[in-house]
Write a structure and sequence with these properties.
By secondary structure, the chain is of the alpha+beta class. The chain has helices at residues 29-43, 65-79; strands at 7-8, 11-12, 15-22, 46-52, 56-64, 84-90, 99-103. Helices cover 29% and strands 38% of the residues.
């Protein structure tokens, strides 16, 4: 686990919450919504992600820290930098139980 990994109860936490936003227009919000949903489902993430054609991305996701790191890498590869990523440690029983990905354009 990286030096930036969160610590919970004296041990490195395997799980985390990720809060982020990216303010930039999206060419096809519906296609982006599908891509985001598929990625989150493949990585086993839960939480809420909003996609807006004129506003970009806004999300609060939880899952394994390694899965969240992979998610962030995929999104940055697709959209470039400029995303404000905020990670925090969670216990397994604090993970979001479901996933909601919606186009709010």
């Amino acid at each position: 686990m990286s030096a930036a990994a969160a610590v919970l109860g004296g041990e490195a936490s395997e799980f985390a919450v990720l809060l982020f936003y990216r303010v930039a227009p999206l060419a096809d919000a519906l296609a982006e919504t599908g891509w985001q949903r598929a990625l989150c489902e493949r990585l086993g993430l839960g939480g809420r992600l909003r996609v807006a054609a004129g506003g970009g991305l806004n999300g609060t996701l939880s899952g394994a820290r390694a899965a969240l790191d992979e998610y962030a890498a995929h999104v940055e590869a697709r959209h470039g930098g400029g995303i404000d990523w905020k990670f925090g440690a969670l216990a397994r029983d604090q993970l979001f139980p479901s996933l909601s990905v919606r186009d709010v354009s």
